[in-house]
Every structure is written in structure tokens, then in C-alpha cells.
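forwarding from the other thread:

> can someone predict this with FE2/S2 (inorganic) cluster?

sure thing
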Amino acid sequence: MTVAFILNGEDVSVDSEPNRRLIDILRGDFMLYGAKRGCLSGICGACAVIFNGSLSAACMIPAFRVHGSEVITIEGFSLTNNYTDVVRGFSLHNVENCRFCGAAKILLTETLLAEKELPPPGEILSAFDSIRCRCTRSENLPAAVMEAAEIRQRRRRGRKH
Ligand code: FES
Ligand code: FES
């Protein structure tokens, strides 16, 4: 089937078997390697992308569901000011971003901040339960996400500090 969708803001299309995984379309057809092939069963979070506005496991999305959707990968998101806000918040609170789940944590933060300007710590912690991260202490995450939110608010008001 022809799978037409919006990928990082651009209209794209590929020929694919209907059940091929989105993670394999991204890596095989578009050379986008930021989403990782981990457990391939929706558990580890390493393959996360923003799919129609929500953080989703690209290993669990078949091509027929990709048709007509909007997908944002870490490669597309990294070109935005919002990305810079998140990375700055992470680095100020010692949140690691290794190649396994760094992209997933950044994209998850973006979806949280898109929903609420300043999400409460409990919501942040339970959202991060969906990512199996071996590098970061979970207690650092709420402060990092809230820092990113405040950096974003200051940037939007036109102040640097
Ligand atoms: S590879 Fe998709 S959730 Fe683990
Ligand atoms: S940053 Fe290394 S596993 Fe999460």
C-alpha cells in the first residue's frame, strides 16, 4: 500500500506492507535513526516518536495506521526552539540523554509541556514510567521538566534569564 503522512512537517509517502512497523519505515526508508529498535513490544520506550500529538511507541504502529498521520521524530524536533528548552532543563538537573532513551525522554517532555505549561511533579513522574531508562535517577526528572517549562516561558516572554 501507499502510506502517505506528514513527517517532521513535510508530506511524504512510501510503499509498504500494511503491517510493517513505523520504526522500520523511519529507519529503513527515511534514514532516521533517532528512534531505536529496542524490545519491539511496546515496553522499553526506546522507539518513541510523537504520533498525532502523543508520545507513542513506533514499534507498535503498523503502516496502515501511519497513513494520514503526523509523525515527529527527534531529528525534526531537534530543529526547534522547544528542543533547546528541554535539553537545557535536562542538563541543569543532570538528566542523562544516552542513545538508548534520550530521544524518548526529550519527546515525552515536549508532549507534557504541550499539554500543560507547568505540569505537576506527580504527573511528570508517572508519565516517565513509560520509558525504561537505566541512566537517570527518576527523582531528577520533575525538576528538569519544570526547569524546561520555565525556560520556555521566559523565552516566550522575550527574556533570557
Ligand atoms: S522498541 Fe518500541 S517500545 Fe521498545
Ligand atoms: S538515558 Fe540511558 S537508558 Fe535512558
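Helices lie at 22-29, 63-66, 74-77, 81-92, 102-115, 121-128, 141-156. thats all i got for now
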